[in-house]
Amino acid sequence: MPNEPCQKCVSQKERKMNNLKNWVLSFVIAIAVFYTMDHAIMSMQGLPLKVDMTPAQ
Amino acid sequence: MLPNNSLVTAHFVSSIEEQSPSQSGVILHRSMQFMLALIIILSALMLVPDYAWSSDSAVATEAVAEELTDNKPAPVMGPRDYRQIGSMSSRSFVWVIAQLHLFLAAFVLAVPLFVTVIEWIGVKTGDQRYDDMAHEFMKVSMTAYSLTALFGGTLAFSLFLLYPTFMGYMMEVFGNQVMVYALLFFLESGVLYVYYYSWYALRYGNKKYVHLTLGVLLNGVGTTLLFVANAWATFMMAPSGVDDAGVVTGGIWDIMRGPLWNPVNLHRFVANIAFGGAIVGAYAGYKMLSARTMEQRAHYDWMGYTSNFIAVLAFLPLPFAGYWLMAEIYAYSQQMGITAMGGILAWLFIVQAVLIGTILLAANYYLWNGMSRCEGSGRYTWLIKFIAVTLVVSFLIWVTPHTLILSAQEIATLGGSHHPLLGPFGIMPAKNIAVNLMLIGTFLSFQLYRRSDKVITVPWANFGNALMVAIYLVAIANVIFLGVYYGYFTNTVYKVGSSVAQVISTLIVIVSGVVIDTMMFKGAKTLPVKWGQISNRGVYALFALPIAFTWLMALMGYVRSSVRTHWHVYTVMKDNSVDNFIPNIGHAGNMMTVATISFLALVLFIFWVASLGDTKQAKPVSVPAQNPAQ
Questions:
Q1: B532 pLDDT exceeds 60?
Q2: What is the ipTM score, two decimals?
Q3: A vs B: CB pairs below 8 A
Q4: 3-state secondary structure of B507
């Protein structure tokens, strides 16, 4: 059985994968919230931003 | 309406009487009957249609118009309209008395607000310590209440004596509204005394809810009092309900709801809570340092922590309320806004930065020291140095002035009127970044403190932590990006607009932090907290807070009042007294300091009186008299 990965290694890998997913998902959510908020707040004041966040002249 | 109300009240009162047959209870219930009757009378009076309160109605408008035929414009003031006590400056005298009255009033109106909340927490948790602490907070504020009334009376007499014509005009404008204030004051006093003295008589079961209701009523009356008095100050800053000559053209509601009334209402309401929390925190610190037993020390340590919690929690949204007030001032009069933030008063905003920086540093320092109460805090202490660096750097940026008063030689040495490296830190975008980062840092300290005694057990703990970290980092990046990009590389209108998004970024951190923590703390294991273990150095921070708060209130109160420049009532009634100018900063600073030190002396007196009630003289041991002849 030398080629089979040990149970401990699999669970460690899974844990690392889950952690990575958590971090990626968290940052995606946070960036989406703040990006949307920036656009919303500036538009409400009549100062719309373009997708790349430059002010619309 | 009235008969129904009476029936309900009668039923309510009789049901209370059935529950408490004791004689002392009867006296108390009589007082309550009296109070309820007073409330019903007041409610009935409010229901009576009054043209002054309903300016929308056509009938009311006619009535106002008829009455207005007698109204006169604001008087033009001459030397005979001002008086003096000896050679003392009337402005200086009224300045100090008004400031002391405001300090005391802020304190006594704030304490019952959080006392009622603490009392309610005691009821919900069943932990009697909350009830005892709430009662002790009230005890401290009771002495202050009498002092508030004394200074309020002195202020009223001083104003009528020294500024009789001006006060005559104010009475003409506000009319019967001042009597509503007086009535509310009677009501406040009555409810306050019943609330405090019935604490132990209405402590358990349904009676406790009667007591809590009294607390809510007390706060309702107190807050209304504050709003009524605010209307006088905001009318002087931004008059409404009068024409350009000062002739009253609207009802009392038009006069009261000027453009600055609600911003000042919100700002003072929130600031009062922070101020009140800081003052009782100092009381707890004083009692803790003088405690003789470990049990006492633990109690006052807990009390100090709760006070600091209240002060910081109320302080965090305060800059946003201040931002709204300044935005409304600019919207009302750009000239007034520029006088405040771009003219002679602008330097006082640098002093404000120093004081707010002191408050935030002291509050953080207290929280970091307080983490030593719990062994679980070791998980988070490594973060403190980063928060400390952020606070100090932000503080230094905030206090960097834009322009300096320089000699020609100094300008030549500097290479211009602005420093080449530090100059960019002197403008608002840099300061907006600094303030928001300081608030985010303070909230992080607060959140770490709350997490110190908990072991989170929810299955999604890793995701929750990752989300919280992501929110902090993205919020910080967003605040810096908005400040730098829109503040320095686009036009001014974007600079101002992006500051709102910066504020919202900080609020998202605070709100999401509270929500995520509340969800994550469900089922969490709680680690023991050793109350009383905090170092004495940490407790000293509890004294720094009220001192800085008091000075700050004196400072910003002066700025708020001074933006009227040479007007008693802005653009309507000119100030023609010998003091119709904005004094130099040094003089103003001295006046604020006199008011601050006087108030702190009064606070020491209040603490001493509050402690005096607990002091009992030991009964003298009678020694049999000896006959010298024997």
A1: yes
A2: 0.86
A3: 60
A4: helix
